[in-house]
Structures are given as structure tokens and as C-alpha cells.
Amino acid sequence: MGLDGSLGYELSNLFSLKTLDLSSNNLHGSVPYQLPPNLTYLNLASNNFSGNLPYSITNMASIEYLNLSHNSLSNQMGDLFGNLNSLSELDVSFNKLTGDLPNSIGSLSNLSSLYMQNNQFTGSVNVLRGLSPALTTLNIANNNFSGWIPQEFSSIPDLTLGGNSFANGPAPPPPPFMPPPPQRPRNRPKHPQGQGDAPKGSESPTIQSDKKQGLGTGPLVGIIAGSIVAALCVLLLLVCCMRVQKRKDDTSSETKDFVGPLTVNIERASSREIPEQSLENSSIAAVKLPHPEKMTPERVYGKNGSMRKTKVPITATPYTVASLQVATNSFCQDSLLGEGSLGRVYKADFPNGKVLAVKKIDSAALSLQEEDNFLEAVSSMSRLRHPNIVPLTGYCVEHGQRLLVYEYIGNGTLQDMLHFTDEMSRKLTWNIRVRIALGTARALEYLHEVCLPSVVHRNFKSSNILLDEEHNPHLSDCGLAALTPNTERQVSTEVFGSFGYSAPEFAMSGIYTVKSDVYSFGVVMLELLTGRKPLDSSRERSEQSLVRWATPQLHDIDALAKMVDPALNGMYPAKSLSRFADIIALCVQPEPEFRPPMSEVVQQLVRLMQRASIVRRQSGEELGFSYRAPEREGDLRDISF
Q1: Residue 142 in 3-state DSSP?
Q2: Domain that holds residue 475
Q3: Where is the sequence biased in composition, kind Pro residues (predicted)?
Q4: FRET pair for 224, CA 20 to 30 Å: which of 241, 387, 584, 614?
């Protein structure tokens, strides 16, 4: 067809597409992270694609034919094939792929043809040995494979192995089975019976001598059974002793402070002001509870409603499902505040006048095997204390329900303020926008560099930044990454639902680190700068992705002035704008190692605010209203600072 350029990034919306053949064109760039999820046939061969194999391949459960050959794909393949049970032909030949073969490729039970020649793969090919019953064609020539050639390969009709560093000859057979010699009893039976089925010549001299005077099958089974019963009795006695001792320890430790799974880096925290916000106890349905900061809950409700003991100390207040139903009016639509990746959030009005927010965890969003994992996450989240983080004040684990109770922040989200109406976005002056960036940067700095171990947010976006009446930011959903999500739900919500904020390394390989949070923070700063959404399909194609459109213009002062949110009405200082853009450019670097730590971002934003304060004092006017962007290009020099 002679196509040129790169593929779009919203292909995942093509749910009905089954066959996609774009082979033999001049397409370049990365293979899109978002591929049509229901494809059965995908051919991108003979183009100029580069970079990694996209992580979204793992979600293409119906794919039968996948051809990415004759491109410039590089790096390791990644464990992408665990869900591709229908795949019958895979061709990644003539690329620059490196590293060992992923374990998941050995799970392709229906694979009949595999072409991997002319790459730079290394290591053993043993992971492919289980494919031989169905595999009819295997070409792994001209790589850097080493080790023995599996014997199972001899049954593959079309096999090409040349150009590797395999050891000469077939793989050696596994060592023969060597059963341990049976123990001799004090009174041997007069008529010994069968001694086992070890092949002749494989026994050691000890075993051969025992063949004449060994145990019969019956006595041997009796000895083994007796040993097992004795061991179980000892084990049961130990468990009983441990439970008694633990009950004593729990009773004696109720008045002591605890050290949980989340600690604070005192050395770093000493240089900051992190006020300890006390949690007030709510009286609910006449249930009296001790002060949450002094409480170590002894028991919570299990899945079937029965009481069970917890293993972790929790500072948050335990609630009952009944009390939360009353406070949210049975989780009615009128109480709904929003919906996230793990469930819906409701406003809760309690009889004592206290207002909180309740997140009702969707059971389909988690793959928890037991409540302990949830309670450990609650224990850690309840001890996150920072003025720019929404505190967790309570929780509920009862009758199979899991709910989280947060402090209520009632002025909406940053996403609402920026994108809902022009009137709302006009309230966000330049000074307020910089302050929001600084507050959320401090929240991430606390999670990444003060908490031990570091807490990765994993879902940083403008809809998770809540604003109070004075437009101070409060970051929500902190610590929720500790809850193990369902794999399919994770891909759909984190890659597709929040795609505009996802760092390249997560979209391509599923890797997510603190530096991925830094990238997402840079995207939010771009929203503050431009007033645009991270992804906007209503705009022309070249401007739909905010990062792709804005990044090349961040160091162009003329283009930068045109990018600014029109809601600011030109009221911003030019030098402050330029420094703000410089921070963004660092945060959205494609390579994570080149992104700065959040402590460095905080320092730069603090310096930007300090310079703004000096100018405000000199001018006697409020920043954000003192400096109107010039109508003429030459006037820029006159208002910058």
C-alpha cells in the first residue's frame, strides 16, 4: 500500500476488528501500545518499527497469527505470551531482539510455527522443549543461543538451528533415579518381600545388599505411617503453644507503640514539617470504640461474617457495613462522588455531623486470597501522614465487603476545575496552578523518599488530586498499589483508562517505578500549563496526545506563549512560565533514568515560588494578575522576571 508515518494510539477502540495486515509498508516508530484487543490475525512485517514489543499483546487472548518480522524491534521480548492460548504462528525473525527467551513462550500449547531467526537471543532454548508435540516448524538460526539441544526437537519436522553456539551432540539424559536405602528394623521378617522396581545395575552396593535382607512392604508402610502420626502430634503441640504465647503477647502489647510494615525515613523527615493529623473517633450506631491511634484491633469479620484475628496493627477506625450503609443512604446514586479503578466513592454523612468519603472496593478489581493482604495495605495506608495526602481514617472488612473511609475533600478534583467549564478553570490563576504543582510534588516526594519502603502511587492523574476550598491539593489513592489487582482489570484501567498519564516503560513492558510517577506528574503539569486533557480525540490528529504535541515546543518561547491555557487570559509572568516548562521537559523524558527525583522537582518549584514572592512584594500586586502577556512579540522582554 505504500503507507508512511506511524500508527495511531487509539487502536484499542476497534473492538470488532479481527484482521489487521499492514505488512510491507514504510511505517516507523514504536508498535502502538494500544492494539485492537480482539484481533485474530496481525501482520506488521517488513516495516521500520523499533523499540519493544508492546505490553498490550498480553491482552490479545484471541490472536492466532502474529507476524512482526523484518523490523528493527530491540531489547528483550518480555513475558507477554501467558494468555495467548490460541496463537498458532509467531514470527519475530529478522529483528534486533536480545536476552533470554521468556518463560511464558513455553506455554503456547497450540503453537505450530515459530520463527525467531536472525536476532540476538542468548541463553538456553529449554523453554521451547514443551512445544514439540504441536510444533511442526521451528527456526532459531543465527542467534547466540548456547547449551544443549533438547532431545524433543528431534520430533519437529522442519527444524533449523544453525548459526548458534550449541554444545556438540544431543543433550545428556537425566540421571537415573536413585531411591534412598530403607531403614533396617531390629527384627527382620523371615520372608522378605518385594524391594522396589529400580533397574538392574542402577543400585549402589548398599541397596543390593539390602535386597537380600530388606524390609517387606507392610512393615515399611507401618513405620512410615507411625512416623507421620508422631510428627503431626509434635506439630500440633507446637502450634498450641505458639497460640497461647501469642495471645499473651497481644494482650501485653495493647498499650505499646507498634512498628508496622511502613516506616518513615526520620533523617529525611526531620527537614520537613509533616504534621500528625489526629484521627477523631466517630460514634456509629451506638458502637463505642477506643481512640484509633491507641487501638490494635483484635478481630475483624471474615468472608463469612465470622470473627477472626488480625496479624497487623491498624490505626484506622473499623466500621460496620450497616453503619456505612446508613451514612451513604445505602450507597445510593445521590451519594456517588466518583468512580476509580478499584471501585466507586460515596459521600457519607454520619449522625454526629461528620462527613467522610467511602470507597467501596469492587470485588472483581482484586484477586486477594485472604483478608490479611487487604488489612496489611490498610495498616500501611492509615499511617501515611502528609498535609497534601488525603488521609485514610477507617476501613470495613465484613461479610466479604471491603471498604475504605477517607477524609472528605469537598471542592472537586483538579480534572473538574481544568476541564469541566471555563468559569471553573478561570478560578485557577497562575499562582494557584504553581501552588497545586508544588503541593502534589511534595506529596510524591514524601511517598518516594520519606516512606520506607518507597510507596509508588501508580495512578497519578488530575482526577486523583482533590482541591479544598482554598485550592490546596490533596493527593488521593495513595498506597492502593499495594492491593494486588486482577490482571485483566489492571490492563484495562491502567493502560487503557489512564493511558494519557502512563510512562512509556509501563505501556511497553508493564514496568512501573517511582520514575513512572514522575512522568505522570509531568503530564499533570502540562495540564496545568495548557488547560488541555492528556488525550483529546476532538482535536486534530497531531494535537490529540498532549505529551507528543507539547514536548517539542517546551523550549520555544514563542510557541510556549501560544500553548498557555486561554483561561489565564494572558496573566502570567513569562520567565515563570519558561521555568515551569523546563521542569515539565525533565519529567516527561522517555527514558526513566533521565527523569529527576521528586525532591529535585520540589526544589525547583520552591525556587520558582520564591522568585514569584519577591516580584509580588516589589509590585504590591497578586501574582497571576500582575503580568499580562504582551500582544506584541517584542514586549516579552519587558514583563519577564
Answers
A1: coil
A2: 414-639
A3: 170-184
A4: 241
